[in-house]
Design goal:
Elements lengths: L12 H12 L10 H21 L6 E4 L2 H14 L5 E5 L4 H12 L3 E5 L9 H7 L6 E5 L11 H11 L2 E5 L18 H4 L2 E5 L10 E5 L13 H4 L7 H18 L2 H21 L4 E2 L33 E5 L5 H10 L19 H5 L4 H4 L2 E5 L6 H24 L1
Helix pairs in contact: 1-9, 2-9, 3-4, 10-14, 11-14
Length: about 400
């Protein structure tokens, strides 16, 4: 029972076949002028077009990278270095790819301004109006939180950035492939609010080791790795097998997203998982905004059907729940769950091994006694009702057993 799809997803059979083709058949250097190289180049460009279609972008605006983390680094550093403004706005609920980058930039002299969040985990827009001024070079935020699934009001942040002349980079790792996105949209849409978008292939059934940065036309980004590849925006011979796999994953995600009933089905399973656990474990709580209630920025409720390319913050990803078990330790829950074949996490996979509570949950104001015992459960496209029922039963059984032992100690 794999309930850790926000950490990574299993490559689909089609993706595996595309990667194999890139290794076995299209192994030529895509920068070579001979037939072998040009065949590889043609395949890379077809994959680029597939990824661009998934996010409603133009193929020439995409830069392939080794990961979403690299794409974020290229976008944030590259945009700051291309401007005279040396202020970065971000928040404490970001993935470590942004948080750690901000700390590194702070040590190098960049001014970092922290965007506060409301108790449900959404950005405080009133505070954002004061923080984002004409000294800000880049605002780096996420579309959906990787630990709680919270959907952020990025559309509104985009308006503030446009007024201040700042560049908005969106971490789309948990959005792309899970929700529709149209980056060619009007200025008053979510897509129209974003200047740079980072994405990761392995979050939507593609291979690891490949990601992309979308750069809106007219936005300058100084390259971090020099070279002639990717229109001189990211040097190094392209990872042809990985890129082919990413292209196939994009095509498959687009097909899956074209049927809204797919999102509805898994969202109902996520709700059922929560319902079963909360009913079985007294005191358990869900961390994050409710699915069917307004957030603290007074936006209307967001349902599965409302999560369109134009929706802003409020609600959560259809596949994600973060449940806290007060007084317990997440590791003490996850290890026996793993032994029973139920895979979950205590938050971002990149932060595993830490005994400290999640920085994301702390920033949301969740007490340490709840944050310490919080686990993330994230469903996938193929999660079944049987897996949810069995998984909820196993989680409740383990939590109650661990709680009994903790109570006696």
């Amino acid at each position: 029972m794999y309930l850790d799809h926000n950490a990574t997803t299993r490559p689909s059979p089609g993706v595996v076949a595309s990667v194999r083709r890139g290794v076995e058949e299209l192994w030529g250097n895509p920068s070579s002028v001979h037939r072998g190289g040009q065949d590889a180049r043609a395949a890379v460009e077809l994959a680029r077009a597939s990824v661009a279609r998934l996010i409603g972008a133009k193929a020439r605006e995409l830069v392939f990278t080794s990961s979403c983390t690299e794409a974020i680094d290229l976008g944030v550093r590259g945009a700051l270095e291309s401007r005279t403004r040396n202020v970065l706005v971000t928040s404490a609920v970001e993935h470590a790819a942004i948080r750690d980058l901000a700390e590194s930039l702070r040590a190098q002299g960049t001014e970092i301004r922290e965007l506060p969040v409301a108790p449900g985990g959404t950005y405080d827009l009133d505070a954002a109006r004061d923080l984002i001024d004409d000294n800000v070079g880049v605002v780096a935020v996420q579309l959906a939180n990787n630990e709680t699934g919270t959907l952020q009001p990025v559309q509104e942040l985009g308006r503030l950035c446009a007024q201040a002349g700042a560049v908005l980079l969106a971490d789309g790792a948990q959005w792309v492939g899970k929700l529709p996105l149209d980056l060619s949209g009007a200025e008053d849409s979510l897509g129209g609010a974003i200047d740079l978008l980072a994405l990761s292939g392995h979050k939507f059934h593609g291979p690891k080791g490949v990601g992309a940065l979308w750069v809106r036309r007219g936005v300058r980004v100084r390259p971090r790795v020099l070279g002639s590849q990717e229109l001189a925006r990211r040097g190094g011979t392209e990872n042809v097998p990985g890129i082919l796999g990413l292209g196939t994953a994009a095509d498959e995600a687009a097909a899956w997203l074209s049927r809204p009933e797919n999102l509805t089905r898994v969202a109902h399973l996520r709700d059922r998982l929560e319902e079963l656990i909360l009913a079985s474990v007294p005191g358990a709580v869900v961390n994050g905004p409710p699915n069917d209630a307004p957030d603290s920025n007074h936006r209307p409720p967001v349902t599965v059907q409302d999560r369109s390319p134009n929706c802003g913050g409020g609600g959560r990803l259809w596949n994600t729940t973060n449940i806290g078990f007060p007084g317990l330790e997440a590791e003490a829950i996850l290890i026996p769950l793993s032994e029973r074949g139920v895979y979950a996490s205590a938050g971002a996979a990149c932060s595993s091994g830490s005994l400290e509570p999640s920085p994301v949950l702390r920033a949301m104001g969740i007490p340490d006694r709840v944050a310490h015992g919080s686990i993330r459960l994230s469903l996938g496209r193929d999660t079944t009702e049987e897996e949810v029922e069995r998984g909820a039963h196993a989680i409740a059984e383990v939590v109650l057993a661990v709680g009994g032992v903790a109570g006696k100690s």
